[in-house]
């Protein structure tokens, strides 16, 4: 069994690649998820009971006892478990920390025979067995068996010349309300959402690729949405190139570590 901590868009892209390879998967997230790209996030199963990303379906498991039947049905089980206490209950063979918090929130190299972590905040050989590079560029998806990933720059990846401009952030603390929705085409200056009565306008032309759900409590500056300057509607409903590359790195790391462990057992 693979336990993936986090069920946001990158974690879900990883899960899709691993599910295609036949691995049984359990994912964890918040009881009230704050994923932005909700149309490609398995965290939505916690809210809706079940959801699909491409051809893979996830189901909300309210208790540990529901997990075996979900996995037997060829689906991913998703738990509301913000502290990932299920690691100690389920004792998975593989743990993947895909929270993308830019720091380690508690993952230990002793959590499982194979522990893989995504992005900065981890050191391979100390916190985990392997780190996967998440920075866009030449090394995206690279397996790091010694050392750490590139440090967080705080600048989103460049898409068609746009970086920080394409990210929507809450202008104040309050309750977020959608005016438009994921998949809607927008022009610069269009009203996309509100926090209480304060408006959030589109910073550029494009398509809304990510947006918090109405009713979410936000803090000032919290990431609340994403406008993709490429007006390609299908990008809103499929795994991103970045998530797919990272998923390939996770798969490579798992197979490498499993082979290493088998060699150690034989020696």
Total strand count, please?
Answer: 17
Which architecture of the largest domain per CATH? 3-Layer(aba) Sandwich
Percent of residues in beta strands: 25-35%
Low-confidence stretches: none
Q: Which structural traits does this protein have?
A:
267 residues, alpha/beta, Rossmann fold, 2 domains, 9-stranded mixed beta sheet, 5 helices
Brief summary of the model shown:
The protein is an alpha/beta fold and 267 residues long.
Fold blueprint:
Elements: E1 2-5, H1 9-20, E2 25-29, H2 44-48, E3 50-53, E4 56-60, H3 67-72, E5 76-80, H4 86-90, E6 94-97, E7 114-118, E8 130-132, E9 143-144, E10 167-169, E11 174-178, E12 185-186, E13 191-195, E14 198-201, E15 206-211, E16 217-218, E17 223-228, H5 241-266
Parallel strand pairs: 1-2, 1-6, 2-5, 4-5, 6-7, 7-8
Antiparallel strand pairs: 3-4, 8-9, 10-17, 11-13, 11-16, 12-15, 13-14, 15-17
Helix pairs in contact: 1-5
Account of the protein in words:
- This protein is of the alpha/beta class and 267 residues long.
- The protein folds into two domains: 2-152 and 241-266, Rossmann fold (3-Layer(aba) Sandwich), CATH 3.40.50; 164-229, Beta Barrel (OB fold (Dihydrolipoamide Acetyltransferase, E2P)), CATH 2.40.50.
- 20% of the residues lie in helices and 26% in strands.
- It is built from five helices and 17 strands.
- It has helices at residues 9-20, 44-48, 67-72, 86-90, 241-266, and strands spanning 2-5, 25-29, 50-53, 56-60, 76-80, 94-97, 114-118, 130-132, 143-144, 167-169, 174-178, 185-186, 191-195, 198-201, 206-211, 217-218, 223-228.
- The strands form three sheets. It has a nine-stranded mixed β-sheet with strand order 3-4-5-2-1-6-7-8-9.
- It is globular.
- The mean pLDDT is 94.
